[in-house]
Amino acid sequence: MRSLLFVPADSPRKLEKSLASGADAVIVDLEDSIAPANKEAARVGARDFLTAAKALTKRPLLMLRVNALDSGLVERDLDVVMAAAPDAVMLPKSRRGADVQHLSVKLAVREAERDLPDGSTTILPIATETAGAIFGLASYAGASSRLMGLTWGAEDLAAELAAETNRLTDGTYADAFRLARALTLFAARAAGVDPIDTVYPNFRDLAGLRAECEAARRDGFVAKMAIHPGQIAVINDVFTPSAEAVARAKTIVAAFAADPAAGVLNLDGAMIDRPHLKQAERLLARI
Ligand code: COA
Ligand code: MG
Question: Are the CB atoms for 239 and 214 separated by under 8 Å?
């Protein structure tokens, strides 16, 4: 999974367009993009869209973003939309691993009620949207077998910190946000799940998006979220492993397979050892 496209659940037009966007995952949103008065209509829209999309033979991963656990809205979100059995639920404003466990129990109840396989709905938390959430990042490891990745958010965090801006004049993130981004990467890898980069809100600036995708890939992120269909081609391009990278990974795996007792090898004049093998296997798992 390289790209995840947010779509407001109260927009039938955007929901329809999302399926043709090329996004690997579509995140049907009930939270920040939906005004309070539209929540119930959005739930019904999400349910109907997800039900129809699930029946397609070729479809993206289908994800539902519920409201935050402390919003008082999540039970109703799930009561309505779990009828469509989304593949995954995104948890905004997640504070720590225990929040994933709370959501997991709510999902387990709906799975049982609807005779869905126990544990079939996975969870993607947005893990840096409150100041306190930064200190909960270490607790995702081992929290739940439903955990399918970790992502971060810079917009809500800016509001929480009362930061005037989250970006410097050159477009890069200010320190507090770089910290949140880096800790998400550590936390995801420590938990054994995919680190997923946050959205690039300036959706007309594709050069800026590409630069941010490349920086994310370089640092270890495997995917990026999007808010506009026009961002998907760039994200997919950057996060698809290149033919050269795949060929090199295959060579490394083959070299160790040919010499299983070796700890370290000489590959065309460069040293390769176990960390290189792990990297190569991880890259091949993504294609
Ligand atoms: N998913 C699917 N289709 C989308 C889309 C999205 N996220 N964003 C825009 N589109 C569609 C539009 O409907 C439009 O189609 P149309 O011309 O057939 O009506 C086309 O893409 C071009 O859109 P454009 O005019 O460039 O943008 P806009 O002004 O319609 O929408 C936003 C701009 C930001 C309001 C819109 O991209 C959006 O709603 N993004 C998602 C916001 C969200 O979910 N935020 C929460 C997570 S941070
Ligand atoms: Mg938000």
Answer: no
